[in-house]
Write a structure and sequence with these properties.
CATH architecture of the largest domain: 2-Layer Sandwich
Strand order of the largest sheet: 6-7-8-9-10-12-11
CATH superfamily of the largest domain: Beta Polymerase, domain 2
CATH class of the largest domain: Alpha Beta
Structural class: alpha+beta
Largest sheet: 7 strands, mixed
Number of helices: 9
Oligomer: single chain
Helix content: 25-40%
Radius of gyration: 21 Å
Number of strands: 12
Shape: globular
Number of domains: 2
């Protein structure tokens, strides 16, 4: 039997629980700790929430903080749906979801803006509470499909969160794995229009690589709008392939493609691959060569003959 999501009325002890955990985190991380923030629904008085304290910790050298936090009783769970996020949980009398970011990560701003908007808009709190209650009445809210990272409850809140972020003026660049329906829609739209349609190849929104374990699908958003998309495959323990890198038509030639490529290279390197290969279209060859890519054999099928094999060691 699937475990149902538990949402409870606001508890006045939640801020105290946060303060207690924050002291322990600061003690564990010492000089690595830059800032600690209470975020999520437990940070908003009057808002019902899952009884788990969401904490953002901003750090220096996040890769060196994992062992320190594990020694303090936290369990490392990977990056969840956000690249370069170090996700931890702590389960006990006080339950915690800990999100560790390096300084400057856009999700720090996103979470603080969303929290602060709710704190200053009572009607938004009421609307969010009603949405949560409505979602919990649906069976889908407590389940997740085999290919989904989150349950329907989390996915069902996405449209409301995007609406609040837009009202609050969030406009930062955000690099994420495709998870929510809105992200997938942007991914498919851009991939089809910029990669497949120009070479007259039918785009398959249900292609097996969209769910394969060694394939990873990303979007770059400006604020809440998806403006670029990417597909990376891990070929082996040393090599990754960039299958798709495309920017939406209205955002091309503004540096977003090179910005996303830099993030992809960093992410690929963090995950232990040191060589990147690709089939680049001939009209994009100059773009990649300026960013350090050179001819490198990539013996692999392509959807087009109008390509050149390029690669880079990172």
């Amino acid at each position: 039997m699937k475990k149902h999501i538990e949402v409870v009325p606001y508890n006045e002890d939640w801020p105290k629980q946060f303060e207690s955990e924050a002291r322990e985190i600061k003690l564990a991380l010492k000089d690595y700790c830059v800032a600690i923030h209470h975020v999520g629904s437990t940070a908003v008085p009057g808002l019902p929430a899952k009884p788990k304290i969401d904490i953002i910790t901003v750090v220096k050298k996040p890769e060196e903080c994992t062992a320190l936090l594990e020694q303090a009783g936290y369990t490392y769970n990977g990056e969840w749906n956000v690249p370069f996020k170090y996700g931890f949980t702590k389960r006990g009398k006080v339950q915690v979801n800990l999100h560790v970011f390096e300084e400057g990560h856009s999700d720090i701003e996103l979470n603080l803006i969303f929290r602060d908007y709710l704190l200053s808009h009572k009607l938004a709190i009421e609307e969010y509470a009603k949405l949560k209650i409505h979602l919990l009445k649906e069976d889908e809210a407590h389940q997740k499909q085999k290919d989904q990272m989150f349950r329907g409850y989390t996915l069902g809140k996405d449209a409301f969160i995007r609406k609040i972020l837009e009202k609050a003026g969030f406009n930062a660049l955000r690099f994420t794995h495709c998870v929510h329906h809105y992200e997938w829609e942007g991914y498919h739209r851009i991939a089809q229009a910029e990669i497949f349609d120009p070479v007259h190849v039918e785009y398959d929104r249900n292609h097996p690589t969209l769910k394969a374990e060694n394939h990873f699908h990303f979007v770059l958003s400006k604020g809440i709008k998806v403006i670029a998309t990417a597909h990376v495959e891990f070929i082996d323990k040393n090599t990754a392939a960039i299958r798709i890198l495309a920017t939406d038509k209205g955002y091309q030639r503004q540096g977003f493609g090179s910005y996303m490529l830099g993030l992809l290279e960093k992410w690929i390197k963090v995950h232990g691959r040191n060589t990147i290969k690709m089939h680049a279209r001939l009209n994009a060859e100059g773009f990649y060569r300026k960013l350090g890519y050179n001819e490198m054999l990539f013996d692999d099928p392509s959807i087009s003959d109008d390509i050149i094999d390029l690669g880079k060691n990172v």
